[in-house]
């Protein structure tokens, strides 16, 4: 067994208590993060400076007794390394100067070399591993589908009309793009593991906007390929798959061979465990908005989730999505204390 509580839980092995960490636990809700961002002058500059990315990754560990450090990075590092001109507009999110809209644009895309083109991420992981031996480092990437939505739309989207038009009118072009992103993601996660990541997570933020058949073909299939690759190259490393609004497909996700499924707050964790708990661990699933409530309400909601999961192995406590910038740090502490008070044995 691992010396890390999180790794054992992801592998559905016994733990002394439910491990806890949070998506976006290193981020804008922390005053020390905001101060550093002001000093650095931008998000991408922080990501691409390994010493700064290391510092940000470790910031929540200085405040909270969390059970993991997720590397400070972004799901769009791969398309940035492909030369699409990523930048972050104020209050508008990520944008690409060169969106991918046709076969020629897909054909031109290179497969980034992780150490040469994305080496700043690997160096950040190495630094975090050197400065912290208490908890494991989690590496991650975006799912091919989710990353493709930004590449094709050119920015964040509400209706995904450009990529869905491609999906239905020119599926071969989209499949070729997803295939390249799948190859790049395999190499990227493999390099993160070699740099010291003890678990990896694939964020499929926008898989839930697809129909069932489209999800299987354009999202889950490519995540399955990544899982298969990683299980051959690094079988001891747990892989977490997270599809936001993907509760209707839990059985299909569990069949990919992943070790754990992240679930959002729209899915009851008791029902999820009944459906797939004998196959995989479950991660989640507090609504991040509850962290805006009173400490008493937060603790009650945490208690409910722990009780709904019930006794036994295979639960990692987390939110059903990332911590929002308006959450007070002391409310995160209240949630952590509620988990650690041991509402479940």
Characterise this structure:
The protein has one domain: TIM Barrel (Alpha-Beta Barrel). With 345 residues, the protein is of the alpha/beta class. The radius of gyration is 19 Å and the shape is globular. The chain contains 16 helices and nine strands. The longest helix is centred in the middle third of the chain and has 25 residues, at 171-195. Helix 10 (161-169) crosses helix 11 (171-195) and helix 15 (295-309) packs parallel to helix 16.
Question: What distinguishing features does this structure have?
Answer:
49% helix; single chain; 16 helices; 10% strand; 345 residues; TIM Barrel; seven-stranded parallel sheet; alpha/beta; 9 strands
Q: What's the CATH architecture?
A: Alpha-Beta Barrel
The neighbouring-strand order within the major sheet is 1-4-5-6-7-8-9
Strand content: 5-15%
Shape: globular
Span between termini? 19 Å
Along the chain, the helix and strand elements come as HHHHEHEEHHHEHHHEHEHEHEHEH
Task: Kindly summarize this structure in a few lines.
The chain has 16 helices and nine strands.
